[in-house]
């Protein structure tokens, strides 16, 4: 998934060297090959267990995906019964595309404030 979807998208968006990839480090998703791959693909731009960057694990209040994105996508997806993987993929894309630019700006601002508070502490 990282090789076939994430990396090409980061390259396409021109942000491969500036995006920060957050890996949750769940045991089923974390064989040594994954951290090796992340260290090669995003040497300074990933956070998670065994990453070169210090971060606070299991902190949903510090992550955009946990405190905003998954809830937004789930509320959109569960309005209609999903009957296939293809339909699920379409609904996820629709959900992401339905997020307003100003809403994302507020989310990013809130996230930066949360990070700043943690740094101060």
TrEMBL record:
InterPro entries: RNaseH_sf (IPR036397). This is Uncharacterized protein. The lineage of its organism: Eukaryota, Metazoa, Ecdysozoa, Arthropoda, Hexapoda. It comes from the Eukaryota. It comes from Dryococelus australis. Gene3D superfamilies: Ribonuclease H-like superfamily/Ribonuclease H (3.30.420.10).
């Amino acid at each position: 998934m990282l090789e076939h979807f994430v990396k090409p998208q980061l390259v396409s968006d021109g942000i491969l060297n500036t995006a920060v990839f957050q890996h949750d480090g769940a045991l089923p998703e974390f064989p040594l090959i994954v951290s090796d791959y992340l260290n090669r693909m995003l040497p300074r731009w990933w956070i998670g267990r065994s990453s070169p960057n210090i971060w606070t694990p299991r902190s949903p209040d510090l992550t955009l995906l946990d405190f905003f994105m998954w809830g937004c996508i789930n509320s959109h997806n569960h309005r209609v019964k999903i009957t296939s993987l293809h339909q699920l993929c379409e609904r996820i894309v629709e959900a992401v595309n339905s997020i307003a630019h100003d809403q994302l700006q507020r989310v990013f601002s809130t996230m930066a404030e949360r990070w700043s508070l943690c740094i101060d502490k």
